[in-house]
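testing teh design pipeline on a random one, pls ignore if ur not involved
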């Protein structure tokens, strides 16, 4: 913003009074009006004045800046989802609003999916910026077999063993 201050001179009076009348509006497009009035006093005691004005329009057209954006990750289906969130700063707004929208695309099996986390930072004037993180949830671990029966040799007239193995998996059913 310009900081030039007006001055006033007079051909007869070396002691000119300069009044600065300032007004400022708030919001996204602010107008600052500086009204300047100079007065002198001639020998006949008349006040002679001249005026000038300056209008400075302040506007916010710059979007907030998102920082600390989480990196894309691939996790197993039994791992917790990351909870990192970005921060935002703005040139005019000290309290930027950040919103989060998640979208999910199913994978090849019920446990697998791709989640896209999209953050939008919006300032008071509606300027916005976005950033995204992609979280890929996969199931790359095979089930684990347990209680596997031992190999046996039996006669043909004997019944077959009925022991069966068990299996566990890292899959979390949601």
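output:
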């Amino acid at each position: 913003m310009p900081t030039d201050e007006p001055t006033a001179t007079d051909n007869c009076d070396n002691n000119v009074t300069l009044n600065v009348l300032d007004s400022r509006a708030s919001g996204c497009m602010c107008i600052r009006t500086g009204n300047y009035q100079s007065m002198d006093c001639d020998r006949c005691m008349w006040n002679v004045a001249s005026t000038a004005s300056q209008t400075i329009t302040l506007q916010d057209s710059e979007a907030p800046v998102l920082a600390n954006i989480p990196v894309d990750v691939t996790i197993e289906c039994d791992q917790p989802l990351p909870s990192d969130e970005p921060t935002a700063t703005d040139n005019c707004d000290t309290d930027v609003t950040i919103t989060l929208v998640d979208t999910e695309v199913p994978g090849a099996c019920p446990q697998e999916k791709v989640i896209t986390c999209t953050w939008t930072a919006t300032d008071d004037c509606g300027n916005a910026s976005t950033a995204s993180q992609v979280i890929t949830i996969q199931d790359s671990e095979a089930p684990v077999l347990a209680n596997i029966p031992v190999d046996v040799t039996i006669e043909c007239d004997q019944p077959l063993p009925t022991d069966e193995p068990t299996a566990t998996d890292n899959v979390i059913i949601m």
